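Before anything else, study the sequence and fold tokens given here and see whether the fold suits the sequence. Record follows:
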Amino acid sequence: MSHHPVVGGLSALVVASLSLSFGSAAQAGLILDLDFSRGDTLATLGSQGLSFVASSNVQESDFAQVADGKLILNSMGFSSDIYAGYQLAPGYAADRDTTLEVVTRVTNSTSAFGLYLGFGGEEEYAVLFANPNSWHMYQIATGSVSGEVKYTLSTSANSNGYVLKVNDVVVHTGTLPGGSSSSAGLYFGDGTPTGGNMRAEITSIRYSSSLPGGDPVAVPEPSTLVMALTGSLCILGGSWHRVRRRRRALRMAAA
């Protein structure tokens, strides 16, 4: 009787066990991955590390809701100018390539400070304001848009240069102003209590940060390898004993 099926099963088990350890490496660098069209909710924001921050008189339920596959952020109903949004802090490192991708439609804004999309730290801070018919990099550049827009804002490690894409087309590159250590991280929402209010519908948000050239592949810890090998050897031993018992039974029947 050939033992190849047993050895083959052992190899497959070891490969499967190791794949569990290496599987997370494919998402290395991806910090946020939110898509409200696929069923993400307000609870999903919290589960991915985001915190709701706002003026003292603002409750999350009065500002944000998920409906029809969109995260709706709306400060238009407040009688006074407020700020409210979501923050990830810490969530930025200057020695990493960083990208924020947001698919959104801003339906209303009472000033040029519409939907605030920003990230950075002490070295630099990237701030994009999205409005119903325009975008502008704060104090840098402006452009026109309409309808739902995909904004992709990227910065390079150890550099204050940035690239802005609108619907996957590069529309501007430039140099960012200095930032503030007190604001290191990511923020999106109504960003200023003195710049008017706004309403935006967000379909998806992706935020990533990785070392130049990509984060190193995760290597399984020795304990993981030992457990995988131990479990595999136990299965191999059990299979070998079953083979011996089957042989013995066949010899006895033949006698």
Q: What stands out?
A: Confidence is low (pLDDT under 50) at residues 1-27, 217-237. The radius of gyration is 26 Å. Residues 100 and 207 are 5 Å apart (CA to CA).
